[in-house]
Amino acid sequence: MTPLDLFDEPAGATPLEPDDAKGLIPTWVATRGDLNAAEQANIAKAVAWVSSRGGPHSMAALLQEEIMKRLHRRMFGDVWKWAGHYRKHDTNMGTHWPYIHTQVRELLADVITQTSELDALPWPSDELAVRFHHRLVVVHPFPNGNGRHSRLAADLLVALLGEPVFSWGAENLNESGAARAAYLDALRRADSVYDYEPLVAFARS
User: Phi, psi at residue 80, to the nearest 5°?
Assistant: First the structure.
């Protein structure tokens, strides 16, 4: 398998820049399957961390920029040297990279305000968490892993709002298929006409 095959992303994903691809840590990764397995093992460790004593267990703990970075680092830090660091270049999606810091801080400040009174949320809990997920995807802070990072962040937020974590189609959304296509369609619907119902429905499917 060539390096191009190894780092080939599923439809709708951000391709890795050559310099980012050089940040691969495990020397045993030789195929796309190896890479997927390494990342999934790392994400499983991150999920265990968020449930541990050191994880973010309050709204104030979760909605910090450093925690967003730490969550990404926990998810991918065994696999990528740049895990937890904002990208330093523009990609095929996402905000212009010098504005990432500002836009993430604004997003977190907005959600802090939105959740300041839990009995007077601006939207139902599921929609609020899905809107948070969508805005993180739009900013696209990191070189890769943004979808997985923002979905886990949304799971943590909706749980703090007292609801079960999302199922996200009950499929591996990092692989091409019907579930990923439906997910991307729902994201585009939110992008184009600010209709979040399909994304909320998908998150609970």
Answer: -130, 130
Considering just the CA atoms, what is the radius of gyration of the chain in Å?
A: 16
DSSP string, 108-164: HHHHHHHTSSTTS-SS-HHHHHHHHHHHHHHH--SSS-HHHHHHHHHHHHHHHTTSP
Give the residues across from 80 on adjacent strands. Answer: 24
| Alpha helices (H) along 52-121 | 59-62, 65-76, 100-114
CATH 1.10.3290.10 for domain 3-203: yes
CA distances from 167 to 10, 39, 63, 103, 123 (A): 20, 19, 22, 27, 20
Q: What are the pLDDT digits (tens) for 67-104?
A: 999 999 999 999 999 999 999 999 989 999 999 999 99
- Record the pTM: 0.94
User: Measuring CA to CA, which residue among 1, 58, 10, 53 is closest to residue 30?
Assistant: 1
Strand partners, 24: 80
Give tens-digit pLDDT for 42-71.
999 999 999 999 899 999 999 999 999 999
Averaged confidence pLDDT in the chain: 94
pLDDT at 14: 80
C-alpha span between 84 and 142 (Å, rounded): 7
Domain boundaries, the chain: 3-203
